[in-house]
Amino acid sequence: MEWQDVEGHCHHIDVAERLYLGRICQGVATDKRVIISDAGVSRDHAIMTYTGGMLTIKDSSRNGTRVNGVRITSGGEQQLNPGDVVHIGSIKLQVIFPEQFNMYETSDAEQIETTRVLSLHETVTHLVADIRGFSTIAQQTESSLLFEVLSQLYESLATIVHDNQGTVKDFAGDAIFAFWEHNEKDDPAIARNACYAALVQQQAATTFFANLPEKFSELRYLKLGWGIATGFATVSHYGVRSENLALVGDSTNLAFRLSGLANKELSSDIVICHNTAEMVRPSMLVTPLGEVDTKGREGKEPVFSISET
């Protein structure tokens, strides 16, 4: 592992079994830790593990860990490959195989006692997919069978999000909530990734339900609706638990409202907002669906469906 500190000095360290990254890493030997003196870095921010020839990183922070610019799901683990760049606080660490480097040590004087939780105010594309008529389904279906189906479905949908450089925020009973950060600028490519993920999820869900075993036959007719909205949002935390990542903004709320209209009040499976439509129009077929009322919001929202060109 190689990185530069804020003063431009290069450092190297081997990852042997485990490497702890954070602002304090209390009780960890100096040859098994990287201390990052940044108030936005958590005391115990992340852990790299090398086993069976595979290097992974697990996030346990308040402000997040990014790999190649994409946030890892809070508490999530991701495999690292040669050349990957891990962004923690003010430093970027590059993964290099198979060279060996000297150990990096730091003094306890560099430690800071509290984590300053950061609030990012940035453009975000949100994706919400939920199951139509879930309350009725839950009432009529044995919970263990329903969980078995949903766990398989959500695993597939989450993989599609990750494959398209997004972050899964929540699984909420009948819904999956994911988001794509634009990194302080409106980036059409980011919105396009979210829309493409929804299209792939749509195909995957249709195939998944159609091929359910006979014991799940009553669930084969299930349908989902997708809502996608892009806009300014604040990304931070509620409470004291690192996994309580929060996205707050009108665009966040709008994505949930649009998912409730998709494949229900509106015939389209995927409904996107005006901002998203403007970003993806050059590369996707965007069809106007008119203007709709969205619960709890004033005025009407122009909405659109999408398909690949």
* Rg result: 22 Å
| Low-pLDDT residue intervals, each spanning 5 or more residues | 99-112
Helix fraction bin: 10-25%
Annotation, overall tally of beta strands: 19
Quote the distance from N terminus to C terminus.
42 Å
| Global structural class | alpha+beta
- What is the mean pLDDT? 84
Q: How does the overall form come out from the CA principal axes?
A: globular
* Helix run count: 5
Main sheet: strands, sense, barrel = 8 strands, mixed
The proportion of strand residues reads 25-35%
- Could you give the order of the helices and strands? EEEEEEEEEEEEHHEEHEEHEHEE
Would you mind describing this structure in some detail?
The chain is an alpha+beta fold and 309 residues long. 23% of the residues lie in helices and 35% in strands. The chain has five helices and 19 strands. It has helices spanning 134-140, 143-163, 188-210, 250-261, 274-280, and strands at 2-4, 10-12, 18-22, 33-35, 46-51, 54-59, 66-67, 70-71, 77-80, 85-88, 91-94, 120-131, 167-172, 175-181, 224-237, 245-248, 270-273, 284-293, 300-308. The strands form three sheets. Strands 12, 13, 14, 15, 16, 17, 18 and 19 form an eight-stranded mixed sheet that branches. It has a six-stranded antiparallel sheet with strand order 2-1-11-10-7-8, with no helix packed on it. Strand 15 and strand 16 form a beta hairpin. The protein is globular, with a radius of gyration of 22 Å. The two termini are 42 Å apart. Mean pLDDT is 84; it is low at 99-112.
Concise summary:
The chain has 309 residues and is of the alpha+beta class.
